[in-house]
Every structure is written in structure tokens, then in C-alpha cells.
Amino acid sequence: MISATLALASRALTVALRRPQYLMPMLVFPSLLLAVNSGGLSQAQNLPGFPPVPSFFDFQIPAAISQSLLLGGVGTGIAVALELELGFFERLVAAPIPRSSIVLGRLLAAAAIAAVQVTWFLGLGMIFGHGVADGFIGALAVYAIGCTAAVGFAGIGLTLAFRAGNASSVQGIFPLVFVVLFLSSAFFPVDLLTSPVNEIARWNPLSYIATGMRAPIIGYGGTKAFLEGLAAAAGVAIFFGVLATHALHRRLRMG
Amino acid sequence: MKGAQVVPALARRALNEILRVPGAAIPGVLAPTVFMLGISAVFGNVTQLPGFNGLDDYLAFVLPVGLLQGAGFTGAATGVNLARDIEQGWFDRLLLAPVSRPLLLAGLISSASLRALIPTTTLVAVGLLFGVKFPGIVELLIAASLVMLLAACTACWGTIIALKFKTQQAAPLMQIGSFVAVLFTAAYAPKQMLQPWLKGVATVNPVNYVLTGVRQGFIGNVTWADTWPAYLAAFALLTVLASFAIRGLMRMGR
User: Fold this and answer.
1) Distance between CA atoms of A183 and A207, rounded to whole angstroms?
2) Which residues of chain B have pLDDT under 70?
3) Nearest by CB to A182, which of B38, B51, B188?
4) Cα–Cα distance between A239 and A148 in angstroms, integer?
5) Among candidates B203, B170, B157, B171, which has minimal Cα distance to B184?
6) Which chain A residue shows the shortest CA-CA distance from B29?
7) Is residue B169 within 8 Å of residue B194, measured between CB atoms?
8) How many other C-beta atoms lie within 10 A of the C-beta of residue A55?
């Protein structure tokens, strides 16, 4: 099972790297929004109640990473849905490999791509911001949460792809990425969000994921924020990984 | 067929798609609506900053950004539809028709301008529902006409890209153009509050003047000083982009 999972993950990565047009939106759109948010609202860090931050740009980096990872999840879903439409999935199912490795391979590839995404935004932080306040260990913490969360977001994409079976339906969830983002504290401190978004954000796992990544970047929030972020990311990964496996089995049962 | 018949016929053909495939119009309405409501909910408290000069309704401030984004999506959709027509060979037949090529462009951009009224109406209705003060009829007409002009500009941009790449796969390039043009302005905060680099970009970005023209009625009174630069910027942008689009059309198939 391990070798099949690794082989499928490697294939998914190769296909993704061969078509950079699918990877670029995950980096370009969040980078542009990062530039606009930080350039337009930098004075927001003067609001009473805003945590002490080196710059508003540094505060926004986890929001950009979260957005990028969510778009990655949509991209995974679209890729699998296209395989379903084009018939490659049928051949994959006929191969003598464990069915769960189909899901695990994709999730592993999403984690690997997430490492590239996190590297990109931490790089932007080093160039235009103040880098990671907690240093190398802090950067590792961001990778840990980011890659784990990416597995969960890819699980959402896989679940949708197996249930819908076509790429356009998965593409249709694109605006929902922003709904999930806006209903979290990814962009702004939870206490400064307007009501009722602040209440919803307290229940949204993405708030904890973003805050967990933010803590080592801005050097505020400490180990508690990191552990909460990692727990939220792991919870999302396990929940949607299981859901994606169920959706795959359901699809196979229904033919 | 005379020009007076060609343009409405082409515009009607493009608008027919909304009736035949209503779902195709949803992303162009949904995305700016989600963006507008999301931004105002998340950043709503920034109006406490002194630079907002007492404005307390952030939704009214970002609603015009949503309107321009709606125009951007509409223009990109026009480009994608043109790329599809090129891929499927329909546009080749259109080029063979005894119709001047600028008229073909006029048909495309007039359909985009009319279609932009769908997200405009929806966003204004949603804004009013969420407490934005009714700006007044004249103010709304100014905003709608500027949005239609910007939709014409983005349709020209979409046309340029479609004629260059001749494939629907160029859609992200069509969208990113309007995305950058609309957001690299005083979209989130008054210009004096922007970081120097963004303030510089906004100063030379013609869409910023269009945004100011659309926004004025929603956050205060309409003034001549904010109106004429908006129309001048929109017409100048349209002239430049339309001339590139016509150049692309003239070269097509030759």
C-alpha cells in the first residue's frame, strides 16, 4: 500500500508540475490579495485591540497561505474530477492496488505542494516583511500546520469530486473558498471582526489554523496558538480524509 | 445588414446565453457579492481610523468595488465566450460576413455593458438589504453608466486576450487583468491612507478615478470634481483598449 500511495502521489505531483497553469493561480491570486490588503489597510494595526505585529504585511501572510491552501484543495478536486471524466479513474480502479491508496496518494501530493506554497509565502515575508519572528523552529511550525491543513482541504476537494463526478461542479465551489475565509479570523483579529462574523469565526477551524501559523510569524500567541492550530489542521485532515475515502467507496459501489 | 442592425443582433446573441444558460451568469454575480460582504464584515471596524473622516458604513465604501469587480467578471466572460466561438469555428464564419470588424467589437462590448447591469442590480439590492443608504437616482445612474463603461473596457481586454491566444484556457489571464486593475486602487481605504507604493499605483491607475466616480454617491454627494475625471478615465481606457482589440480583429485570419 505504501509503494502504491507513493507512486500515485508522485504521479499527481508530476502532472501538477507539467501544467503550471493549474499551480500559478494558487500562488498568484493570494499574492495579489496579500499586496492589496497590506498596502490598503496597513493602518489597521493602529486599531485598539490589534495585537502587536512587526507589520500588517506579516499579519496577512497566514491569510494568504490559508487562501492558497484552500485553492489547492479546489485544484485537487478538479484534477480528480477530470480523471473521472476522462476515464483514467476507471483504469486506476482496475489496477491491483488498495483503493485507499488512491485517496492517500492525492493527499500526500497535496501536502508536498503545500510545502511549495508555504515556502513561497514565507519567502515573500522575508523579502517584503520581517521574516519569521520565531526563526527556523517557527518556520517548521508553519510548515507543520500548513501541510497538515492542505491534506484536509484536499480531502474536501476529493470528497466533492467523488460525489459530483465532474470538474465544473467542483469549480463551482470556488466562491465558497472566500466564504470560509471571510468567516474566519484569517484576515483580521477575531475581536475586531464585525458581528456576527466574530462569533462564527470562533467556531471555524480555519481561524485556529491561520492563528496557529501566524503565531510564529509575528512572534505573538505562543505555543498555545500553535498547538490549537495544529490540532485544528489535524482534525480537518482526519475528518475530510475519512469522508473522501467514504465518498470513493460510495462511488465504486454505485458504479 | 447595416451597422445599426449588426450591433444589436450580436449583442442579442450574447445576451441570449443568459436566458439559455442562466447558471453561466451566477459566478459573475456570486463572486463579487461574496467578496463585498466578506470584506465589509472582516474589515468593517477600520472605519474607526481617523482617515475615514467619520464614515461609519464600510459596506457603502466597498460596494462600488464590488460593482467594478462585477464589470470585470462580465468582461472576462465576454472574452471567454469569444475564445469559445473561435475554438468552435463560429467566429470564422462571422469574419466572412460582409460586416466591418469594428462593428463586431461594438456588438461584443455592448453586450458586456448591458450584461454588467445584472451584477450591478444584484449588488446594489444586497447592499440596500444590508443597510446601505439609498444613494439617489442620479447617483445610481452615474454609477451604473461608469460600471457599463468599465465593462466595455474589460470586454475589450478579454477580446484582446481571446484573439491573441484563441483558447478558453487563457481565461485566468482575462480575469487577472481586471482583478489587478480594480483592486490596485483605493479599494479598501481612502487614498491618503494607502501605503506609498499603492498610493502611487492608484494615482496612475485610471480605474481608481472610475472607482471614485462610482463611490461618490454612496458615501456622500456627487460632485463635478469627482465625476468628470471618472468619465474621462473610462473613455480614455476604452479608446486605448478598443484600438488594440480592433487591431487584433483586423489581423485575424489575414
Assistant:
1) 8
2) 1-3, 21-24
3) B38
4) 12
5) B203
6) A175
7) no
8) 17
* Amino acid occupying residue B218: F
Within 10 Å of residue A46's Cβ, how many Cβ atoms?
12
Cell numbers for B56: 461609519
Phi, psi of A187 (to 5 degrees): -90, -25
**Predicted pLDDT at A174:** 67
Half-sphere exposure of A251 (CA within 13 A, CB side): 25
d(CA A17, CA A24): 10
pLDDT tens readout for residues B11-54: 888 778 777 766 667 778 888 999 999 999 999 999 999 888 88
Cα–Cα distance, B44 to B59 (Å, whole number): 7
Measured CA to CA, the distance from residue B65 to residue B59 in angstroms comes to: 10
Residues of chain A in contact with residue B189, where contact means CB-CB under 8 angstroms, are: 40-41, 43
> What is the phi/psi pair of residue A83, to 5°?
-65, -35
Cβ-nearest to A175 among B31, B183, B188: B31
pTM for this model (two decimals): 0.88
Distance of alpha carbon B230 from alpha carbon B224, whole angstroms: 10
Helix (H) or strand (E) holding B75: helix B58-88
Calpha distance B189→A56 (Å, rounded): 14
Cell numbers describing residue A2: 505504501
Partner B, chain A 135-154, Cβ-Cβ below 8 Å: none
Residues in chain A: 255
